[in-house]
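Journal club prep, notes for RB
We'll compare a predicted complex against what the paper describes. Inputs for the cytidine-5'-triphosphate case:
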Amino acid sequence: MKHTAIVLAAGKGSRMHSDVPKQFLLLADRPVIYYALRAFEESFLDEVVLVTGEGQDAYCRKEIVEKYGFSKVKQIIPGGKERYDSVYRALCKVEDCDYVYIHDGARPFPDEDILIRARQCVEEYGACAAGMPTKDTIRIVDGQCVVKDTPERKYVWQMQTPQAFSYRLIRTAYDRLFEKGDFEGITDDAMVVEQMMSCPVRLFEGSYRNIKITTPEDIRLANAFL
Ligand code: CTP
Ligand code: MG
């Protein structure tokens, strides 16, 4: 069985408000993206496809993949405008795998235990995603910030990556998504499976450290974890 990771690093990082895309900002002298690639390099995964922004592939090859000896990175491909465009391009390049693990390059801390849980879950159920129970109470509001609903906290999880799928399932889900062409509200891969397939998506435990670098304070948090 072949296990392939797709590591996404083609975003613009607009919420970070930095000149350098957030996946290349330094954490302890190494770019953010280094940490996820290292976790996959040291794991049971067979191959990694790195998805980068337009014109960033040479930098990634030389300054990250070759420099740190990430031998599992077999392809560096350009992403697309939206996250789902980047994922679909990558899915079309990894047709020979059995399981695919889609991961945000902006999440530096997918540790070994998370990857093992992902493997166990995907082998059993075929569609799964890392998540953690929310610590805060979540309220649903309307456009005027008036509370409409309060979901019971024990049933509310925050989604993370990796999200792992059997290849045929996620490929079919994305093929259908692009045939339909309705991308409204799609922010992760589990949603694509939920909406396009009849297969349920299981959540497995990620970790509270498995943060996504999104806004400037996340860099300070990530440095503290390191
Ligand atoms: N991503 C990608 N291709 C895109 C958009 C996002 O590969 N067209 C990747 C990002 O590089 C990131 C992950 O998807 O690793 C999660 O996306 P997000 O946190 O939203 O990153 P950005 O889109 O870069 O940030 P923002 O939404 O603030 O612009
Ligand atoms: Mg984004």
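Talking point for the session: The CA atoms of residues 56 and 78 lie 8 Å apart.
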